[in-house]
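Title: [Solved] Bacteriophage Rz lysis protein 3D structure

Original question kept below for reference.
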Amino acid sequence: MPWRVDPTTAAARPVHEHGGPNVNTSQWPRQRGQIQVVLIAIACASLLLSIVGLLTYQLGRSRGLREAVASAQAREKTIAEVHQQALDAANQRERAIEDSARRRVSAIETQFRKERDHEKANRYSFAAAVHTGAVRLSIPTIRGASCGTDPGADPALAGGDRDETRAQLAPKTGLDLVAIADDGNDAIHQLNACIDTYNTVRSHFNNLLPQEAAHAQAP
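Solution (posted by the thread starter after getting help):
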């Protein structure tokens, strides 16, 4: 009996000479169903792998985003800390300069009051001496002027000797004249104190400015 390979089962089967191959067609639906199950399993596995890959990508992307956000927040925090430190240093420097200027101005005012009080005490002592007669005030006068002489003529050309003499002033009159000079002296001292205060404040204010601006402010 000759043999023939069955294409569905890949097995050799006997072939009848007169009746053709002995094919068992009842197993085809079962084999087709097994193939479909395998294909469905492969499709499910592929889908599952795709889902796992997509989830892995999304998780990695989410983790990368979180790391990027955390890094940006860390940079912002560092920048904010640096800015805060610079601001604190600038405020501390400004307070130190203001305190120095305040102490300098206070020293100028103290010195001015001390000198003013000292001068007042000297004036009181001087006035008391004038009133008691211990000190006498006088003004220069010219002795030997002849009648009819032109007051505006040159003394060197006018006739007669002109020796300078002094005329004593009344205490009140003399003190009134001295008070005029004292008022002028007080005004000068006060003006000098104001100038010192202005220069001190300007110098300390320039220290708060950048170097370029400070040079521009300088007279």
